[in-house]
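Figure 2 data, in text form.
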Amino acid sequence: MQNCANQLTASTSPPLLISAHLAFYSPASLAVCPGDPSIVTLVVRFPSNSSQQQQLNAWPGQAKSPWSEHAFWDRENDLLFAAVGASRTLDYFSTLNFRRRGRNEALLTNDIVDNHPAFASIEAAATAASIAVSYLFHRYHKHRLERWTSIVHASLATSGAVRNYCLKTAHP
């Protein structure tokens, strides 16, 4: 029987039939020696019923994460959805402003933008779509993505509106 020191030096050539990025590791370097103090063993115990699961979730003194379970229509989401709606409204008026100054819309056709009810409904639908995507993330317990969807949407719409206001007038 070989000891760990002999085993590590016994075979140093990598096997031939492995992918290139794994060829740098010899099988001996991947061997685990019993009693090696550098090896940490982690034992995970899964609860067998729902009462044990509730006990695991309710440890005393356990700090709650800011992204933990919450109601969908909580204060933070309300503020984020209001920010998305406000930024889309700002985008609506900034787009109408630069159309009056003779600029052309890049993402939509000018006919859609010049049709004010149609353009307003597109902006409202974008806000509703953002809320729907946030709800899907909430439903599947992806709470960080739920919040970040609104943050990114409001940021992009606001930066687009600021860009629209910064454009120079096309006609004299």
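Caption note: The chain has two domains: 4-43, 75-166.
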